[in-house]
Amino acid sequence: MPAKKRRRSAERNYVFLNVPYDSAFENLYLAYIAGLSAFGLTPRATLEIPTSSRRLDRILELIDRCNHSIHDLSRVQLDAKRPRVPRFNMPFELGLAVARDARKRGQSWYVCETVSHRIKKSLSDLDGTDVRIHGGTVKGVFGALCDIFVRKTRQPSVLEMYRGYLQLRRNLSRIMRQAGAMDAYSARVFRDLVFAAQAYQLETQRQQRDGDKQGKVKISP
Fold first, then answer.
1. Architecture, CATH, for domain 3-210
2. What is the pTM of this model?
3. Which of 42, 43, 96, 197 is 20 to 30 A from 186 via CA?
4. Where is 70: in which H helix or E strand?
5. pLDDT per position as a tens digit, 20-37
6. Closest to 96 in 3D by CA, of 135, 137, 134, 66
7. How far, CA to CA in Å, does 200 sit from each of 70, 187, 194, 216?
């Protein structure tokens, strides 16, 4: 297959992941990575983009390359650290994705939240949009992903996604240590988490195929 077609095929499975980058959200961050990987999708995030004067251009380019985007607007309250201001990155990047879809069509964007009905006040312009409520739980995130990607060929169960999540959780400290990172929100850690999640899914699928083959072996009388 030509390189250009391979790239386009890969990009059809890219999901722009727009979530809070804080310690309290870490479990859900891992859940999104594990869950998307279980669907055969590749999470992409602004964590991959180096800080520079062209950062906004790079964010637009990244959104443009993704066929889907998920925007978690759970952080609408004031930040606990000073200066105590709300975080605008998530709704801003949602706006970029909505504008991109209106301009070019073809990208599916989805909104997730922790609290039911809160978005009617925090972002009333989205009234009429289906917002997936995960309740701030790992399994809630998996349920939201099952709802969002119900038409995907691969349909992992919540249990399968949870096993992938536990694998990431067990490996997080090692991944952070190898990257020399203090938290899970660095470019290297994000890359390695995505790689680990996808490797786990490939190995799980291989084991399932091997099991199916063994089950079909006929035993002579």
1. 3-Layer(aba) Sandwich (3.40)
2. 0.87
3. 96
4. strand 68-72
5. 999 999 999 999 999 999
6. 66
7. 22, 20, 10, 25
